[in-house]
Amino acid sequence: MFHLSSLTKLATFAGGVIFGTAGIKALSSKDAKKVYVQTTAAALRAKDCVMDTVTKVQENAEDIFEEAKELNEKRESDEVLESSTEE
User: Fold this and answer.
1) Helix, strand, coil percentages, rounded to 5, for the chain
2) What is the separation of C-alpha 3 from the centre of its chain, rounded to a whole number of angstroms?
3) C-alpha atoms less than 13 angstroms from C-alpha of 62 in its C-beta half-sphere
4) Chunked in runs of 10, what are the mean pLDDT values of the chain (87 residues)?
5) CA distance 68 to 63
6) CA dihedral (66, 72, 77, 78) positive or negative
7) Do 32 and 26 touch, CB atoms closer than 8 A?
8) How many of the other CB atoms lie within 10 Å of CB of 48?
9) What is the pLDDT of residue 87?
10) What gap in Å lies between CA 75 and CA 20, rounded to an integer?
11) pLDDT value at residue 56
């Protein structure tokens, strides 16, 4: 006849098939699709917010970089001017 291990394997397989079928039906239901749409919409809004912040940070970083370059150029020209007057 059947051994206990064979029955256990058969029951596990049957349970998996039933659970999988029920899971697919649940995941493809209209209510689930509404949840997916709402979640995706929220993720897109969050992405837009993050991208706006990143853009602002990049713009500020560019401004800081340009001002720092100008400051260094002014400092260099001042040093050259000072060294030429000392000689």
Assistant:
1) 95, 0, 5
2) 51
3) 6
4) 74 84 80 91 95 96 96 90 72
5) 9
6) positive
7) yes
8) 10
9) 60
10) 71
11) 96
Q: Which two tokens stand for residue 9?
A: 């394997």
Q: Return all residues near 26 (Cβ < 8 A) that are at least 6 apart.
A: 32
pTM over 0.85: no
Which residue type is seen at 57? V
Give the angle subtended at the CA of 71 by the CAs of 66 and 75, to the nearest 5°: 150
Distance CA(49)–CA(44), nearest Å, equals 9
Structural domain spans, the chain: 4-86
Residue 28 parent element (H or E): none
